[in-house]
What we know:
Layout: H1 2-24, H2 26-54
Helix pairs in contact: 1-2
Amino acid sequence: MKERLARKLTIVAVLAGLVLHIGLGYRAGLVVAGIALAAHLLIGVVVRRAWRRRTPT
């Protein structure tokens, strides 16, 4: 269930990023895409660490 939700949220995020990228123009869109990618990776690392602390292995 969580994987399905994560997959749908990823698709929505990608589509929203494409809309922003096209709407803002090439350079501004690349800046926004770069910031979003960096934020996405950072959030992924934080969530993964929090999840590992929460559940014992």
